[in-house]
Amino acid sequence: MAAFEPSKIRNVAVVGHRGTGKTSLVEAMLFQGGATTRLGSVESSSTVSDWDEEEQRRQMSLSASVCHLEWQGRKLNLIDTPGDPGFQADTLAALRVVEGAVVVVSAVAGVEVQTTRIWERCDEHGISRLVLVNMLDRERADFDATFAQLKEQLSDRCVAIEIPIGSEHDLRGVVDLLHMRAYDSPQGARESEPHEIPQELADRAASFREQLVDTVVETDEALMERYLEGEELSGDDLGAALKNAVARGELFPVACGVATQNLGAAALLDLVVEGVPSPAKKPLALVETNGSAPSAFVFKTVADPFAGRITIFRVLSGEMTGDTTLVNARSHGKERLGHLLTLQGKDHEQTEAFAEGDIGAVAKLKETATGDVLLASDAQVELPDLELPHPVMNFAITPKAKGDEEKMGQALRRLAEEDPTLVLRRDDQTGEQLLGGLSQMHVEVAVERMRRRFGVDVELHQPRVPYLETIRKESRAQGRYKKQTGGRGQFGDCHIVLEPLDGHVGYEFVDKIVGGVIPQSFRPAVDKGIQEAMAKGELAGAPVQGVRVLLVDGSYHTVDSSEMAFKIAGSMAFKQAYEKADPVLLEPIMQLEATVPDDAVGSVNGDLNSRRGRLHGMEPRSGMTTIRAEVPMSEVLTYSQSLTSMTGGRGDYSISFLRYEEVPAHVAQKIVEAAQREREEVKA
Ligand SMILES: Nc1nc2c(ncn2[C@@H]2O[C@H](COP(=O)(O)OP(=O)(O)OP(=O)(O)O)[C@@H](O)[C@H]2O)c(=O)[nH]1
Ligand SMILES: [Mg+2]
Fold first, then answer.
1. pTM for the predicted model, two decimal places
2. Which of 294, 434, 453, 599 is the most exposed place for a label (fewest CB within 10 A)?
């Protein structure tokens, strides 16, 4: 396949809350675009994008899937992304490489937590957006309520370009508000012949059309003038202005869909081609590139034990051809690229070249990981920050079979390469291996993959809460280390001041020494000693954060002073100053969103209350209520069992990290005592 020119490419991520129909929509688009010959379904595990065994078992997307199709002579790269916040690393990375996004919202559930979060990310990256109100065939689907929510909660620049005819099981088609004509459902509304708008819908359609016209003309002065002069604007006039406004990110058209019946896909494909800017119009300035020399940004890697590593990239500049050698801008190592691959879910096809802006893959690179940049020649470039969330759920992990430690470590490193929000580390205090992820399911999926892909069976143990420590007031102390008995002695002496930093985050070391009372060469050693002491706070052995250290005074000995002595002095000074600085424990607070049957709301709320939860909002909808609350992580480590029993298995929840907060004193005391007991046990 010859490379598509940049102006003929469209890159689009399909995003939204969990279970809104993204994968089904991608399936419908691929079918509609002729890239597949049958419409697969999530239920029968036959979609192109949910190809992974674990995705099929759980019937949800766990990682981004890259697909492509041709429409109106353009190449559309579609990235199906996971909606579950535990797997958002891929979703966030995908948003770095696209000019457009299709935001899928359920007509039953409306705007949900993750919808809003992703919307905000799209704002940050200036991504053009189209919204699909999906699942209009489901019981209690409500287009009007959903559209009102979109305008209220996402943007008042959301504008309906279609309304449904009929609803729920009686959904019969859609009205195209631009051209004011009706299409019958099912099966690709735009394929059927248009006809008159049904009489009973005429008024409703007219009022929606008026909103559409008013909103669109506001974005185009010339059109506005014609409108004010009383001219009747044609669908094509409006369409052209709308398309420009979408490209500039000023309007967000809202369309109707039933992804599983391929209703809405054709209209969306038209919108993508016409509204989303091509890479030629909007080059991605992720790093400074050298004009026409090839460079690429790696936004995903797949670790496959058989096929090896597959690296998925977006071409930032130049044309990328196979059989070339590029340089990894992070490691400065050379990477030899073999055949280039075009992806369709798990399938790949060899390709000669990718033009600027296209998305492609290559197998078996040596050391390139997600977030890396490949360049034609070595240069210092600042790598783009993917701004991924940090792991918050940590589980102690041990292999079931003794002696499998090495194998487990290897498998986990491969998985972490694929997903940087999965972090394996060793707890210095207990020596345990800890596996951290964004949610319990995130970690469980990793475990399942280790078993299936790498043949390692492991056990997870009660997650540890990643407490932090910080200080609340200023303090000052001296650290003086002196050992001067026989031979060469040791001498270091420093005075430091601790100050709390805003928001309990960060660490700063400020050198305030005047006149060389501590020689320049020893001052970094003081800093180092302090940082080592901060790795394990005195309260619960948790890392200390949110501290500014001023090194204000000290003394030295011309013979006995050494870096080692000043490091120890620094750590002694810190420990003393820390005790006087009113130290406190911080705990992670989680955002919990539970959807439960109306009759279980009382008990779920009561239970959240007893877990120190703070209720934020309740939204009843269709017999189910969505409860939003903030809860300390330590209280919801085993929430899934409780929710199941309170709701008879009809409840669902998601949880994600919000921020750190001070632990209330009575709770903190217990944690500190437990940590002390543990330290004594380790010593004994
Ligand atoms: N009735 C109906 N069901 C739908 C529609 N779209 C999707 N579904 C079903 O809803 C469920 C979730 O659909 P998916 O396509 O997996 O949703 P998703 O947004 O990809 O979900 P995640 O990847 O987990 O975020 C599946 O059982 C689909 O068959 C629709 O328009 N109408
Ligand atoms: Mg999906």
1. 0.78
2. 599
